[in-house]
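Forgive a beginner's question, but might I ask you for the amino acids of a protein and the tokens describing how it folds?
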Amino acid sequence: MPLSYNLTIPSDASPFLPHRAPMLMVERIISVNDDEKSSIIETTVRDNFPFITKENILESEALIEIMAQAAAAQHGYNLAKNNSSEEKGFIVGIRKFKIFGEVSVGDILHVSVKLGTEIDSLSVVYGGITCNNKNIASMELTVWHGSEQ
């Protein structure tokens, strides 16, 4: 990652992620709460996203990727804010994945991310996704993040 970013909130999420279109599925960091280790990430479901059905519905499995990217955006933002170097990361576990509704192309999603327990390079991330103030999904991810050596 470059060491100069626009850290003003709201902020474009893409500089903090390795993903690019069409796999880039989150757009903006809306808020960051350092005390609670949480953030809100926003995205609009696009017709070029992977996992869009012919009926323009986002397949529910894609919600896991959206949550993971939201967590990565929060992590990348915090690294940039602390002038730290880039890290790699990936999902190593998914728990308590619940789906409450579906979303379509054009829907605006708000993804809440809260960092939980951290042990070495493993972190638990709690999250939820809403659309029009309705719960769409919730989950708990375990993610690995660190430098390759």
Q: What stands out?
A: The mean pLDDT is 91. The radius of gyration is 15 Å.
